[in-house]
Amino acid sequence: MDSYFSSAMKEIFRAECLEQPARLAEVFRAYSADREIRAELERLKKSVSSSQPLVWLGMGASYCSAISGATRFSLAGRPAFCVEASEWLHFAFSTWDHVAGPILITTSGESAELVELCRQQEKGPRILICNDPQSSCWKAADIRLPILSAKEKGNATQSYTNCTAICTLLASELLGQPWQADVTQVVQAFAQSLDQAFSRGPEIEEVCRGMKTLEVVGRGAAVGGAIMGALCVREMTGWRANAHSGGSFRHGPFLDVNSSHVAMILALGATAEMGRRLARDCVAKGGKAVLVVDQDPVEKAERLLTVKIQPVPEGWEGLTSVLIPQALAQALIERLGSGYVRTSTTIE
Hints:
Blueprint: H1 3-18, H2 20-33, H3 35-47, E1 54-58, H4 61-75, E2 80-84, H5 85-91, E3 100-106, H6 112-118, E4 127-130, H7 136-140, E5 143-146, H8 158-175, H9 183-199, H10 201-208, E6 213-218, H11 222-237, E7 242-245, H12 246-250, E8 261-267, H13 272-284, E9 288-293, E10 304-308, H14 317-320, H15 323-336
Parallel strand pairs: 1-2, 1-3, 3-4, 4-5, 6-7, 6-8, 8-9, 9-10
Helix pairs in contact: 1-15, 2-8, 2-9, 4-8, 4-11, 9-15, 10-15, 11-15
């Protein structure tokens, strides 16, 4: 690995992570007051059926962000589903006229599956959340919402955070629920949680050191944070981290937990106690656990490290849940370096 490149990426990734609170605040300001964005939101609300299930489509980090939108919508008693764009394109395309949306999400605007969906001119309106106004998807879409992220050199940090916030507030807009009252708490909690996470990064990395397997586990909106967090560790460091919902982990990977295994359990929000119990059970089987909580008590036990972050209103956990995996990735890069090179997936 080129030592200069590795050192540069260490600084790039850290800087891009630390810029997230400012980018997040800018998203909220723009989606509250920018006339063009507000006009697009009004067009979108008029075009989305209230009598059909709402579908969100994305790949990679964009799919992770979509989970927050679908979760927020479902919490209000309205059916919503997040589907990988590739699977929907090849196996559910014929359902387009029977769902609300779909809402298409791609940071680059060049993801192969999303480009193909945006080119379906007989379908419409094509609703897009995207970060590049020069991209193929942006040019083909009918209703366009900007992610407002800087162009990243590391993996998706700012773009994931911004897009997750947009998906969450968009679900609220479609439901007719005010979201602006949440903004101050969300921005402050996110900024404080980022500081708390990165201050404990070396401690988290030390707990994980020597483990063969890392599983990141969440529920609800934090499933998006779990998947994105595992992608962050995997892409930036090469450690093959995996992600699961709490239920899928309990019904599968939990069965082979042993001393070579560390689970990062995102025990946030309404189902926090289930996450705490899962962490204790992993430790009882001989594994290690990094337990991420947003409420007291802070549990202490051998092979269990508890990290407390700040609480956010229900449905916003997709934002804060990714911060501990980001901090772990940064600490790993500090110790081992990174050979990451950002590329866009433009073919299937």
